[in-house]
Amino acid sequence: MTEPRFTPLSEASRQALIAVRDSAYAPYSRHPVGALLIAESGRHYLGCNVESANFKGLCAEAGAISAMIGQGEREIVTLYVIGPGQHLCTPCGDCRQRIREFATPETVIVVLDGEGTPLKHYTMEQLLPDSFGPENLPPA
Questions:
Q1: Catalytic site residues?
Q2: What is known about what this protein does (predicted)?
């Protein structure tokens, strides 16, 4: 398997990603997360986590995907995820499945440290091996 390739973030995109992370509403976990999704068109979509008192919040990746879908797009080329520290802040299980819905084998998921430096990158197969997707369902 070849290593996934991705375009490094521009300084403006890195700053936008940090800003959206810093805008997250995370009063319960105190773990703000931001996501920047680059769609097939090249357009960028941002998302941040939004928690609620019942602990059923919205993940940053889900917010970025929702913004992409709302604009009529359906394919993720690259997804950047940033947490607050120097550790890996990989997508949760729910988001891995959400990403899978709109990913291709070439989609790259990049996890950044709190300053926006890439820590690790994944293909969809690496992030969610042997996944279940739309092609596993009978035609409508």
A1: 61
A2: This enzyme scavenges exogenous and endogenous cytidine and 2'-deoxycytidine for UMP synthesis.
User: What pTM did the predictor assign?
Assistant: 0.93
92 marked as part of a ligand binding site: yes
Q: What are the counts of helices (DSSP H) followed by strands (DSSP E) for the chain? A: 4, 5
Q: Which of 128, 63, 125 shows the shortest CA–CA distance to 97?
A: 128
Residues in a beta bridge with 116: none
Contact 20, 123 (CB under 8 A): no
Q: What is the pLDDT of residues 41-81, one digit of tens each?
A: 999 999 999 999 998 899 999 999 999 999 999 999 999 99
Sequence-ordered strand ranges (E) for 1-140: 34-39, 44-48, 76-82, 108-112, 118-123
Q: What is the pLDDT of residues 78-88, one digit of tens each?
A: 999 999 999 99
Q: Looking at the chain, how many residues does it have?
A: 140
Q: Is 89 annotated as a binding residue?
A: no
Domain extent listing, the chain: 11-130
